[in-house]
Each structure stands twice: as C-alpha cells, then as structure tokens.
Amino acid sequence: MRETDLAAPVVAFLEGQGYAVKSEVGACDLVAVRGGEPPVVVELKRRFSFDLLLQGVDRLAVADTVYLAFPAETAGDAWKRRRKSVLKTCRRLGLGILVLRARPEGGYAVLPELDPGPYRPRPDTRRRGRLLKEFATRVGDPNTAGSTGVKIVTAYRQDALRIAAALAGDAVLPVADLRPLARSVPAARLLQQNVYGWFERERRGHYRLSPAGAAALETWGQAIRDLAAEAQCAGM
C-alpha cells in the first residue's frame, strides 16, 4: 500500500462526519473543515515512526486537532510492540491516532485509537514520593548515568552495605545496634527480606554475615569505603 492509497478511506471517514476535506493543503496531507469549527489535520504514513510524530507536532502550529494515520498491517515495531507507550506519548503531545484495518470484503475501516486534545496528567504522588525518598536517602552520586550491564547502587543497597560492614568478621549484632545504619527502610525489614542473601539470623533479633555477605565486602569494597568517607564528612 502506498501513502496515496491511505487517503481515500480517511477522506471517506471524515466526510461521513460532515467534514469537507482537501488534500495537500500547505504542508498537511489532509485538512478537514466542518462549518465554522477549527480545522482538523491528518498526516498519513505507511507506518508509525518518529518522523511521523515530529510531523504531527509541527502541524499543531496550524491546528489544534491533529491525527496521525497509518494501516495496522504495516504499522511497524514501534506501534506493535509499544502501543501503550505510543498512545501515552501522543496523548501528552495532544495528538490523535487513526488506524486503518483491512476489511475482509476489501477496503479499509478507519478506527480512532486516540482523540487529540490537551492532556493534563495526574501526578502519581506515590511514585514521586518514592523518587524523592530515594534521592534524599542515597548517599552521594555513586552511579554513572547511562550505564548498562552494571549493578546500580541504590539507597537500599547502601543500607545493606553499611550493615554488612558492621557485621564484618564474626560479629553478631542485635537489630537495635544496626537500626541507625538503615535509611531507606527499617533495618529489621532489610535483614528479614535479605534480598541479597548477605545476612543470617543467629538467634532471635540477632544477625551475622553470611558467606555471600563476606564476599560482598570484597566486591563492594570501594562503595563501602565511599560510604564511610561520606559519613565521616557528615559527622556521623
């Protein structure tokens, strides 16, 4: 299917809603007008792409209602694999989406997947709270942005490293002594969860380092030294 073949079903769809439609007006593929209403612009492509998204954003300069139209059969990986993310992005940008689906008897049905309009996202206060807590409780800036294939040093991991360092050797300590070392979650919860397998319960309320924890002291030695230096600078 050529891009020119996409026009006819979309024109018929718009005309069925009372719009007068013209092609290639200015830089726009289709422009539709109904009475004294503001214009509707439709950009046609054989697949959804970043270029189509940029075209749609550009058309918002001349029309508040802009649709991106493409056939489902050749929509491309971005649409097929990340449809939810594409819809979310277009919603934030104020763009609509029309998807053309082949009919068994021939021709195409035009299905509105998303109507354009101003998007007012509701802030996720819980996610924002977690973000700010992680920022506040993480010591220093131990990670490199854009890193792949490496373990991220989170505030939770820093808590576990502090506790592991306190339990170095054959130390067995009560939770009460370890409590000041945890910032992101209570020390008791961290020890019970034992996400990294670094701790072993010696007896009720008392913990020691596991063999995996002893190995972690070597693996994360630099991170532990950095935490100690930060604590010293902060007067902890």
Notes on the structure:
Pfam families: DUF2161 (PF09929). The chain is an alpha+beta fold. It folds into 2 domains: 3-114, Trna Endonuclease, Chain: A, domain 1, CATH 3.40.1350; 125-234, Orthogonal Bundle (Arc Repressor Mutant, subunit A), CATH 1.10.10.10. Helices cover 42% and strands 21% of the residues. The chain has 10 helices and 9 strands. The protein has helices spanning 3-15, 50-59, 77-81, 83-93, 125-137, 155-166, 175-178, 187-193, 211-219, 221-234, and strands spanning 20-25, 28-33, 40-44, 65-71, 96-102, 108-114, 172-174, 199-203, 206-209. It has a 6-stranded mixed beta sheet with strand order 1-2-3-4-5-6, with helices on both faces. A 3-stranded antiparallel beta sheet has the order 7-9-8. Strand 2 and strand 3 (40-44) form a beta hairpin.
Task: Explain the layout of strands and helices.
Layout (H helix, E strand, L loop, with lengths): L2 H13 L4 E6 L2 E6 L6 E5 L5 H10 L5 E7 L5 H5 L1 H11 L2 E7 L5 E7 L10 H13 L17 H12 L5 E3 H4 L8 H7 L5 E5 L2 E4 L1 H9 L1 H14 L2
Parallel strand pairs: 3-4, 4-5
Antiparallel strand pairs: 1-2, 2-3, 5-6, 7-9, 8-9
Helix pairs in contact: 6-10
List keywords for this structure.
single chain; 236 residues; alpha+beta; Trna Endonuclease, Chain: A, domain 1; Arc Repressor Mutant, subunit A; 2 domains; six-stranded mixed β-sheet; three-stranded antiparallel β-sheet; 10 helices; 42% helix; elongated; DUF2161
Provide a brief overview of the structure.
With 236 residues, this protein is of the alpha+beta class.
Number of domains: 2
Helix and strand content put the structural class at alpha+beta
Strand order of the largest sheet: 1-2-3-4-5-6
How many H/I helices? 10
User: What proportion strand?
Assistant: 15-25%
Distance between the termini: 68 Å
Largest β sheet strand count, sense and barrel closure: 6 strands, mixed
Give the ordered list of helices and strands: HEEEHEHHEEHHEHHEEHH
Assembly state? single chain
What CATH first level of the largest domain would be assigned?
Alpha Beta
* Rg computed from alpha carbons, rounded to a whole number of angstroms: 29 Å
- CATH architecture descriptor of the largest domain: 3-Layer(aba) Sandwich
- What is the overall pLDDT average? 90
CATH topology term of the largest domain: Trna Endonuclease, Chain: A, domain 1
Indicate the low-confidence ranges by residue numbers.
none
* Residues in helices, as a percent range: 40-55%
Say how many strands there are. Answer: 9
